[in-house]
Amino acid sequence: MMVEQMLVAHSILVKVFLAFLVGGLLIPMMTAKNPLGFKKASFIYTMIFQAIATMIAFAGIVAVFTGNLGWSTTTIIMVVVWAVLMYIEIKKFKLIKVANLQNPDTHRLLKVAFLKISSVQILLVAAMVVLMVLKVKGIIVI
Predict the structure, then answer these.
(1) Tens of pLDDT, residues 55-71
(2) pLDDT tens-digit profile of 81-101?
(3) Cβ proximity of 11 and 53 under 8 Å
(4) If 0-12 CB within 10 Å is exposed, 13-18 middle and 19+ buried, where does residue 113 land?
(5) Residues near 129 by Cβ (< 8 Å), separated by ≥ 6?
(6) pLDDT interval class at 117 (50, 70, 90)
(7) What distance in Å separates the CA atoms of residue 77 and residue 2, rounded to the nearest whole number?
């Protein structure tokens, strides 16, 4: 029973994370005329991003070890995707943190980069969700 509960928690957290990522696409638009607000919103977004991603990883790892599920190919792919997401998010925030956002061209460039990076992150998470749904339904075997 414990393993099923952890997998359900993991699944719910992934859905929350996906909703958070989609909601994050509004940050560049909400802070279009406020470069300092963009920097602050990006910081808060990154902290929440890391918190949710870490909760997802924790719930998944607990399920793997509690249920003796082993390190299947999909589990390894999930860990790699998690690491890539974290790396991308940290690099994105560091870029925004050190940039001169008072320059309108820099601010505009970083807003576009934020949207593109967020879109890639959404695609990575959505691809993982689709992969796991296909695996559970038995359509693919990995």
Answers:
(1) 999 998 888 888 877 78
(2) 999 999 999 999 999 999 988
(3) no
(4) middle
(5) 14, 18
(6) very high
(7) 23
Cβ(88)–Cβ(117) below 8 Å: yes
**Three-class DSSP category at 12:** helix
Q: What pLDDT was estimated at residue 1?
A: 61
- What are the structure tokens assigned to 75, written together? 């589990």
In angstroms, the CA 101 to CA 74 distance is 40
* 80 vs 78: CA distance, rounded Å: 5
For 5, the token pair is: 């509960």
Q: Which residue has the tokens 């919103």?
A: 41
Q: DSSP for 75-113?
A: HHHHHHHHHHHHHHHHHHHHHHHHS-TTSHHHHHHHHHH
Give 22-39 pLDDT, tens digit per residue.
Answer: 999 999 999 888 888 999
Q: What is the mean pLDDT of residues 6-27?
A: 94
Q: Which long-range contacts (CB under 8 A, 24 or more apart) does 121-124 make?
A: 121/21, 121/85, 121/88, 121/89, 122/18, 122/21, 122/22, 124/81, 124/84, 124/85
Tell whether pTM > 0.85: yes
